Amino acid sequence: MIVTRRGDRGQSTVELALLLPLVAILILLVLQFGLVLRDQLMVVHAAREAARAAAVTEGDPATAARSGAERAGSLDHARLDLTTTPIDRDERIRVVVRYRSSTDVPLVGSLLPDVDLEGTMVMMRESPIQNRVK
What we know:
The protein has 3 helices and 3 strands, in the order ααβββα. The protein is of the alpha+beta class. α1 runs antiparallel to α2 (61-71).
């Protein structure tokens, strides 16, 4: 049998009432971190798809890279910025994808600034001659 003093009644309820807001904020912070991490993975995937599209196109690599990045996932196209740079006498192409991830989880999103994410990918250009079968 547990014996408690008369003045200890309700102590666990008070402790729960004091700690519950902190635990809720901690859970929301972890959720916000997970959403930013997901966006970072999507940015790297978009950079890979953009570089691949720019490497195989016969037209403008910047247009192909933009199209490839927009098809890559669920990123907001308005917050997506691409830079396409040919390197090594146009034998390779570098694509840099920048994205501003919004922190919009309730309660904690307004406390945190938006996060700038970046993904870079370099691929060899494929010429039309390499694609032909002899």
